[in-house]
Amino acid sequence: MSRGAYLMSLGLVPYAEALALQRSLAGAVSQGAIPETVIFLEHPPVVTVGRRTETELELHIPEDAEVEIAETDRGGKSTFHAPGQLVCYPILDLGNHGKDVKRYVRDLEEALLRTLAAFEISGERIDGLTGVWLTRSAVPGVSLASGGGRDSADARPVRHSTVQRRERSAEPGSARREPHAARGGGPPRKIASIGVHVSRWVTTHGYALNVDLDPAPFTEWITACGLEDAAFTTMARELGRPLTTDDVRPSAIDAIADVFGLELEELPADEGSGLWPQPIHASLASR
Fold it and tell me: Which residues participate in catalysis according to the annotation?
């Protein structure tokens, strides 16, 4: 049986504003004031630092790179967000979903696998690691050299910010290990990352799916997810053609609704959506 929930599709949102929104929604969900809520958005360029990140070892960002650095309360290590990456933040009460954090992470992986399958991309899990990976050609007949995706990144001054809170965090199965060799040679290619935070059984953070962005910062600017030998890829690169987050979002919404048994009602992204005013509403209204 499906459970009613809210859906918010917000476009491009600064990381700190999105985190403030998640925390407000999580507080309301934990009190039963609003239904569970799923947020889809994109972020301007930002490196987020999880609570297990060894900053001195994992961050090697060029001084002239235009990217924010944000410390956050999710589990896991460092990762990179930028336009062209579809980010999903489910604010769910795990009391409705088994009260099992490991199962929750696996369900997020399942939603990602279904989203990729809608584009005939064969994603995979790798034992001992979170997220979704590719270990072979995603689409028969498509070469990774065939292009179709972004392959360059802007480089301007780094901006630092601190966004952190001490509560129970989790990224189950994230113990560091060497990635498996891909079938046919080469390392596995990570196409989606997961990092979650759970407080009083209510979730924040979620997943980031690489749709069409330059993957170079994952390996050149940071040791993403603490994995030195992993490669990173995008849906556009695997398909050999351009793709937008708008193209992917409907399939992602359907997948998250199906996996978690949600009947999603979309809320307007501006003020007056039935929620209380948030800092994000002012910025959205000014666009």
Answer: 225
